[in-house]
Automatic annotation (TrEMBL):
GO MF annotation: an example: transmembrane transporter activity
Organism: Medicago truncatula
Protein name in the entry: UAA transporter family protein
Homology family: Belongs to the SLC35F solute transporter family.
Keywords from the UniProt entry: Membrane, Transmembrane, Transmembrane helix, Transport
Length: 363
């Protein structure tokens, strides 16, 4: 049974598709919460090495998925500079967000990390041609307004309401800037896994992410690594982050392929709830009342977006898969005739598109 057959069956079972995406999205969300918790633990142990954390993750991705790619003897389907952009953007996003744990609380980081949603909406609108209904945009805006309450909480309480942090506002700013890089990474990865090959995408993300991070570690963190007094707790925290992040990056492409960048990031909103559960039951910390108001506002925005998802603007725009006029190498088992028919139809529309076999272009 090839991927085309599976995709055809999957598309005909709408209920199973929605249920599967929701469950898979929640599993990825739980893994993201674990990454947040382990990063917070590492920061509490006095270790400030966010690049080193990511280095282990990228290295494991490159090693495991690179072995599969080498076994296939498959030629690269995407030009190297697109993967460099993917690796660089993801590495910077990881660095800034993990660095923020040194200054603000785990709940603030996981909440503000959801700023990736509006950036993803903007980037998919511009580069992938995705069109959203007015209700969807209202739902996304409401989510952002709810998340902004965290900034007020940290500003008023000096981090006390957020569960600690020496410079909570600085930490919040680092997270927001990091989400811009995360959105770029998500959109590029979405395009690659939908139009190219998932294993190659994850492999190259690991390879270029490792190279970029290794250079930055040699410049920024060598002294820090030498000064760390390693203990079993620190090693276990690093291992926990490495395992959870490896699983996160392994499952994320499936969600991106089935639902897209925006719904992927909306699914991650529940990681905030997991983070609060961890804080209350593991850290025994109090949560400021504004966080609960923030959860309520975000939940309402998410419901609005989800219930109006099928009401996309149909006249002038289509989904990501229909808008992209892409020239690429056909994978084994893929329906070649339907792919070329789709590309021929779309070429006549003159829609904006990306061409990843050597250059980026506008129709």
């Amino acid at each position: 049974m090839d991927w085309t057959t599976i995709s055809t069956w999957w598309s005909r079972t709408a209920t199973l598709q929605i249920l599967g995406i929701l469950l898979l999205g929640q599993l990825v969300s739980f893994l993201l919460a674990l990454m947040s918790i382990t990063s917070s633990l590492i920061a509490q142990f006095g270790v400030d090495a966010p690049l080193t954390q990511s280095l282990f993750t990228y290295g494991s991705l490159a090693l495991v998925y690179g072995s599969i790619l080498l076994y296939r003897h498959q030629k690269p389907l995407v030009s190297w500079y697109w993967y460099l952009l993917l690796g660089f953007a993801d590495a910077q996003g990881c660095y800034l967000v993990i660095k923020a744990y040194q200054y603000t609380s785990v709940t603030s980081v996981t909440l503000l990390d959801c700023w990736t949603v509006p950036w993803a909406i903007l980037l998919t609108w511009i580069f992938l041609g995705t069109r959203y209904s007015l209700w969807q945009l209202c739902g996304g805006t409401l989510c952002v307004l709810g998340l902004s309450l965290v900034l007020f909480s940290d500003t008023w309480d000096g981090g006390g309401g957020g569960g600690g942090g020496s410079k909570p506002v600085l930490g919040d700013v680092l997270v927001i800037v990091g989400t811009v890089f995360y959105a770029i990474s998500n959109v590029v990865e979405e395009f690659c896994v939908k139009k190219k090959d998932r294993v190659e995408t994850v492999t190259m993300l690991g390879v270029y992410g490792f190279l970029v991070t290794a250079i930055e570690v040699s410049v920024l963190e060598l002294k820090t690594l030498k000064s760390i007094k390693w203990s079993s707790d620190i090693v276990l925290a690093f291992a926990g982050y490495g395992v959870s992040s490896f699983m996160f990056y392994s499952l994320a492409p499936f969600v991106l392929k089935l639902s897209g960048s925006t719904m992927f990031n909306l699914s991650l909103l529940t990681s905030d709830i997991w983070a609060v559960v961890f804080r209350v039951f593991i850290y025994h910390q109090k949560v400021d009342w504004l966080y609960f108001v923030s959860f309520l506002v975000v939940a309402i925005g998410l419901i609005i977006y989800s219930t109006t998802e099928k009401k996309l603007v149909p006249a002038s725009a289509t989904t990501e898969d229909e808008n992209l006029n892409t020239e690429y190498q056909i994978l084994n088992g893929e329906n070649e005739s339907s792919t070329f028919a789709q590309n021929d139809s779309l070429a006549s529309r003159g829609k904006p598109h990306w061409k990843l076999d050597g250059e980026a272009s506008l129709g």
